[in-house]
UniProtKB/TrEMBL annotation:
Localization in the cell: Membrane
Basic residues composition bias: residue spans: 54-64
Domain of life where this protein originates: Eukaryota
InterPro entries registered for this protein in UniProt: Kinase-like_dom_sf (IPR011009), LRR_receptor-like_kinase (IPR051564), Prot_kinase_dom (IPR000719), Ser/Thr_kinase_AS (IPR008271)
Membrane topology: Single-pass membrane protein
Gene Ontology CC entries for this record: membrane
Protein name: Protein kinase domain-containing protein
UniProt domain Protein kinase: residue ranges: 177-489
PANTHER family membership: LEUCINE-RICH REPEAT RECEPTOR PROTEIN KINASE EMS1, LEUCINE-RICH REPEAT RECEPTOR-LIKE SERINE_THREONINE_TYROSINE-PROTEIN KINASE SOBIR1
Length: 489
């Protein structure tokens, strides 16, 4: 990851290292330059001395040969021999001019010095350009993701949906939600549906879902009971968790936080509106709860609920989103409240994991995180978390195994059906059915007999695998995603 402007420690360390290298290289280069010049001068002197001696020998011995020739030869021969030394001396190569060690010494020293200066200047330029590019990249990334704050305190995280801060100006009014329809209620408060302004003619309308969360602050009445005060503290922690997680992560199977609008008495969390509602309503065939204001839903959502291909697609999508939270994202994020009601379906029935109010980030060095109290939904909580208040990524895998069982059986843990059986809960009941081999008893009648029974049985086996009592016996989210992808393909 590129270094940020707020952490200058690394560039400063690099600069100090470069200065140290400069202090080491310059004396070494100068010492090397001096020794090289001295050695070169010595070699030059020895070569000139040898050349002088050789020339002197030739000049001293040659006349003796000519003197002997003059004593033995005739006058004509002597005249020819006397003329020979002149010819020989004329053709002899002239001695090489003496070298100039001072110029060579200076040129070599300049080359070494220029190399060192170029290295230092290039390194400093690289560090400075890296810092500048890091700042520009950070600003561009924040602009793309929309993480900027307006004067009113509104923070937009998804500018692709909320293109202008003025589109949320109605939330700054005291009666901003008075004319909006309530589409859901949860532990934190109500969820409203609103339409964004249409900017261009012919553009399709865009809808958002607004979750209202009460704030525990100075304006909160002092006559609250202890239970109400604890509830407000819980909501405050949940909104902080939502902003830390879905406000900064992006995945096609996660519902992103579009904006956060703080108010004196509450917080507004803005999300993209999902027309097909939650997986809980879609499985029950509750088209009224899943439909929008126009009363339309996807063709795969009918009175009998989702078809099996649509359910399998939802299972694969949730597994991919869970794999991103557990494997790809750092630090690892544990959802802690996976259930059909927290899985929303977009226009193409692509699942989106939502409601990260209970999510926790677990550093890589930790094997588990201990919670102060039990959180989650009964029937989807892993047994070790229920007993020890310690949760890991395998707790999410257990919850996902229960979701697979719900997709294949059409029964939820809270159904009255399990009050009439000897087993307590859907997990033990499913184990008994799968061990007995009576698979038809476990398959949802709404999807049975449509040619997908073999795939459904395989998914039920994966559900049993994910809901093992021992966490080490359960697969990882990546393993589950691979197994479900093979079944789908």
């Amino acid at each position: 990851m590129a270094s940020t402007p707020g952490a200058p420690g690394k560039p400063l360390l690099v600069l100090i290292s470069l200065v140290t290298l400069l202090l080491v290289f310059v004396p070494a280069a100068e010492g090397y330059d001096g020794r090289h010049a001295v050695a070169h001068s010595a070699v030059a002197r020895r070569s000139r001395l040898g050349m002088t001696r050789h020339v002197h020998q030739r000049r001293t011995h040659t006349p003796h040969r000519y003197i002997l020739a003059e004593k033995t030869n005739t006058t004509g021969a002597g005249s020819r021999n006397r003329s020979a030394p002149a010819t020989s001396s004329a053709t002899a190569p002239a001695p090489a001019p003496p070298a100039e060690p001072s110029k060579h010494h200076r040129s070599h020293k300049h080359r070494v010095r220029n190399w060192i200066i170029g290295f230092v200047v290039g390194s400093l330029a690289g560090v400075i350009s890296g810092l500048v590019l890091s700042v520009l990249f950070r600003l561009a990334l924040n602009c793309i993701r929309g993480r900027y704050r307006t004067r009113s305190g509104t923070v937009i995280f998804t500018p692709k949906l909320i293109r202008r801060a003025e589109h949320l100006a109605f939330l700054e009014k005291d009666d901003g939600l008075a004319s909006l329809a309530v589409i859901g209620r949860g532990g934190c408060g109500e969820v409203y549906k609103a339409q964004l302004p249409v900017e261009r003619e012919g553009e399709e309308p865009r809808f958002i879902a607004i979750k209202k969360i009460k704030k525990h602050g100075g304006d909160t009445p002092n006559n609250l009971s202890d239970e109400e005060s604890r509830q407000l503290d819980k909501w405050s922690r949940q909104i902080q968790s939502e902003i830390r997680t879905v406000g900064h992560i992006r995945h096609r199977n996660l519902l992103p936080l579009a904006a956060h609008v703080p108010r004196p008495d509450c917080h507004y969390l803005v999300y993209e509106y999902m027309k097909n509602g939650s997986l809980h309503h879609a499985l029950k065939g509750d088209t009224a709860a899943a439909a929008g204001d126009d009363g339309t839903t996807s063709s795969s959502v009918g009175a009998a609920g989702l078809s099996w291909p649509a359910r399998l697609r939802v299972a694969v999508g949730v597994a991919e989103g869970l794999e991103y939270l557990h494997v790809s994202h750092r630090p690892q994020i544990i959802h802690r409240d996976l259930k059909p009601a927290n899985i929303l379906l977009d226009d193409d029935l692509e699942p989106r994991i939502a409601d990260f109010g209970l999510a926790k980030a677990m550093p890589d060095a930790h094997t588990h995180v201990t919670a102060s109290n039990l959180a989650g939904t009964w029937g989807y909580i892993a047994p070790e978390y229920h007993q020890t208040l310690k949760f890991t990524a395998k707790c999410d895998v257990y919850s996902f195994g229960v979701i697979l069982a719900v997709l294949a059986t059409g029964k939820e843990p809270s159904d009255d059906f399990f009050k009439q059986t000897d087993e307590v809960g859907i997990v033990k009941w499913l184990r008994r059915v799968m061990q007995s081999g009576d698979h038809a008893e476990a398959i949802d009648p709404a999807i049975a007999g449509a040619g997908h029974d073999e795939q459904i049985v395989l998914v039920l086996r994966i559900a049993v695998f994910c809901t093992s009592d021992l966490p080490n016996d359960r697969p990882t989210a990546k393993d589950v995603r691979c197994m479900l992808s093979q079944i789908k393909n």
